[in-house]
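User: Fold this; tokens only.

Assistant: Input:
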Amino acid sequence: MENTGIAYDRLIARFVKWAEKEENIRAAFVIGSRARVDDHPADEWSDLDVIVLVEDHRVLIDDPGWLHQIGNPRITFVERTPDGEAYELRVLFDGGLDVDFAPDPIVEFRRMLKEGFTPLYQDLMGRGVRFLVDKDQLTDELVEVNVARKPWIPPDEGEFLNLCNDFWYHTVWTAKKLRRGELWWGKSCCDNYLKHLLLRMLEWQARLSQPNADTWMRGRFLEEWADARLVAALPALFAHYNSEDVWRALFATLNGFRIVAIEAAQKLGYLYPAEADKYATKLVDELFKGREIK
């Protein structure tokens, strides 16, 4: 089997050759692990993330036929970018080469050069950028612009309390779905939405405990930066697809969130919403016990 690094390099070379001839494309650069050198660089499992700066971003999305110019696409679909503000084309080429092409209007990029980059761009570009195409000498302008990620800002008390209350509200919501027999919904909330809120709290707690901690994005490398106690407990926080195991995982998730949130509140100097915790936990416990005599 061909070395994946070499295979990606060949695909990149074909993309560059094609993009240089396309007037709509003004620039393209690699972000992610294949642009990083020292901090978690690419390995054999890494995909390729390419931001393509274009005059008309819909061209690449609406007609993916151009992909045949650079390889043999086996699977292609469109999804929203991580910030939900745009769309990207995700492609699986021959050999399992996984590439994300994110077309972005060149006018928006130029605006950010003048007014400042969005948090998402700062996070992505601040970790490394490798230009493939640059017809308008954007690299010269980037030298004068600071795209480094901004220092982490702790949540204010309102944001902290809102996340806590969101979590405790949805513990009761999950329990009600389980009592109704909606196992798919109950498990989805327990193992998806509640875990999303738990991840946010884990990020805050990690930053507060270790000022230089790098929590990455959407749980990347969580095993390296999250509280070791919660990492060890994670297997028990997720459920099999049966009602009893979802109940078990729900209670484990309650307990895990409580530990991390209380510690975060103490470090922030905020009052932990103990009454919300107590009330929601009581309701969940009652709903759980009630199922046995229904």
